Amino acid sequence: MLVLLQEGTVLESQTYGDCKRAVCDANGGVMQVDDTNDRFDDGNPCTLDTCMNGEMLHINQDAGFACGMNGKCNDAAQCVRCNVNGPANECQNGTSCVASKNYKDSETLDIAINKCVPGTCKDGSKNGSETDIDCGGSACAPCDEGKACNGPLDCLEAVCDAATKTCVAPTCNDGALNGTETFPDFGGPMCPKNTVVGAACHVPEDCASGVCQAAKCAAPACTDATQNGSEAGVDCGGTCATTCIEP
Questions:
Q1: Mean pLDDT in the chain?
Q2: Domain boundaries along the sequence of the chain
Q3: What angle do CA 14, 59, 101 make, to 5 degrees?
Q4: Which long-range contacts (CB under 8 A, 24 or more apart) does 124-132 make?
Q5: What is the pLDDT of residues 21-45, one digit of tens each?
Q6: What is the pLDDT of residue 156?
Q7: pTM for this structure?
Q8: 8 A C-beta contact, residue 19 and residue 56
């Protein structure tokens, strides 16, 4: 005789760290229920391992959170060691405790250089005035597309989306000189030809007149060997004195 186990009976076989618990349902089957205690420990003292709505999350602790042996978490969720005899706020701003590299809690710090130092643009952490890891801000190179920013100067293409605060790809209406443009939002193979006489150009195709002289767009003329302006042909017809000859 087949005997059904009581609904909710916890099964012996479980998957560790998936925030779920396998139990019997009312029909002799198996169902998964949320289990906030079934957390996966990622082994990082600078993350909070927690279950939320049945999903496993590893949330970074705040910079300065105490970890390991006299360590503090930095902005990159790394446990770094600092001089225990140093200032009370040492490393709380995300600076890295380094000798020749970032020292994690599992490593040994050179006693001779056991101190926190200001972050650099090559330390793999977001610190100082940086808007993203090792880019943006007043000291580092501009950030690539998709990186965090506060303004145009933080971005390689000089465009920081105000809504998402991220660097975005150049367009022909962003008001910036970027991409393949030769003048803000004009020129290059992607954007319209420039109608402004004197605007910067690289090749004739950058200009509405089809004439780029001394790296500037020139006005249409009847002697520029180009059909432009009101001309009916190359340097003839329209306002030009020369009449076009029918082929």
A1: 80
A2: 1-60, 62-128, 132-169, 179-247
A3: 115
A4: 124/76, 125/74, 125/75, 125/76, 125/78, 125/94, 125/96, 126/75, 126/76, 126/94, 127/74, 127/75, 127/93, 127/94, 127/95, 127/96
A5: 988 888 888 899 898 888 899 889 9
A6: 92
A7: 0.44
A8: yes
